[in-house]
Write a structure and sequence with these properties.
The chain has 280 residues and is mainly α. It contains twelve helices and two strands, in the order ααααβααααααααβ. It binds fe (iii) ion (FE) (2 copies).
Length: 280
């Protein structure tokens, strides 16, 4: 069994574009019966099978002490860029260029500096792959564990193979949580969002932290699920998560980015909010 069926991490994001096309026009022509590629489907099968509450707790214990490495933001960007996968180098841009495309689109729209920085760094948690984590524990739509899996999560039937489905305490809508407890008290499936949140928390404005922590939580920010676990503050902050989403989904292009040209602007931005070494 191949633990990493995707040709590259972007294959998951390409499939998001199929599920959530950009314009209403595309929406009208959207083929609702279209299936994900077999590699993407296999990826979700593994993700839904193995993301259990126990698994997430073990990964949190392993990573959240943040004792793996000390790196500046720019070093982390360069480290992420060393991720070699089976993607086609003629078509797929280096990760750093995708992140700069996202940040530049936010900058062009006149958003605050912390918002631009969020675009630049939001996927740095993908370095989990370089620490040896399989794709299904790095990317994919995220969801709470320890409670019922929403039927609106893509490929929901694959959760039949998740051992947590057999645990009565985890199988009610609230599961181990209190209704309205707030997402900070809810354990999310493990991946690049939650990991990066812990690296930068306390250092960025709260809307940026929500964007980072929940940008892959499509079941909530696109499908409106899990409202019963949110509090009013989460609902307010999710306006920011939704504002960020189009920049994440729709700014990828094959147009090259001149990294060295942009570097001085981004060095200043990094120094303003996230100077020096960060613990990863
Ligand atoms: Fe992401
Ligand atoms: Fe992204």
């Amino acid at each position: 069994m191949n633990p990493s069926p995707l040709a590259d991490l972007d294959e998951w994001e390409d499939d998001l574009l199929r599920r959530y096309p950009e314009s209403e026009n595309e929406e009208a022509f959207r083929d609702y019966d279209a299936e994900a590629r077999p590699s993407v489907k296999e990826f979700y099968r593994l993700n839904h099978r193995y993301q259990t509450l126990d698994f997430v707790c073990s990964k949190r214990d392993e990573y959240l002490p943040l004792k793996k490495r000390q790196m500046t933001v720019w070093e982390a960007l360069e480290y992420l860029n060393t991720l070699v996968d089976d993607s086609d180098p003629d078509i797929d841009l280096p990760q750093i260029e995708h992140l700069l495309q996202t940040a530049e689109a936010i900058r062009r729209d006149g958003h605050p500096r912390w918002f631009i920085l969020t675009g630049l760094i939001h996927d740095l948690g993908k370095i989990l792959c370089l620490f040896g984590e399989p794709q299904w524990a790095v990317v994919g739509d995220t969801f709470p564990v320890g409670c019922q899996f929403s039927e609106k999560i893509v490929y929901h039937p694959f959760f039949d193979d998740n051992p947590d489905t057999q645990v009565a305490d985890y199988s009610t809508p609230n599961g181990i949580y209190e209704e309205g407890c707030g997402l900070d008290s809810v354990t999310m499936s493990w991946g690049h969002d939650e990991y990066l949140y812990h690296v930068v928390k306390d250092k960025l404005p709260e809307p940026a932290l929500y964007m980072i922590r929940y940008h892959s939580f499509y079941p909530a920010h696109k499908e409106g699920e899990y409202d019963h676990l949110m509090n009013d503050h989460d609902r307010e902050m999710f306006a920011w998560v939704r504002a960020f989403n189009p920049y994440d989904l729709y700014t990828k292009s094959s147009e090259r980015v001149d990294v060295e040209d942009l570097r001085p602007f981004y060095d200043d931005l990094i120094n303003e909010f996230l100077p020096g070494m960060l613990a990863w």
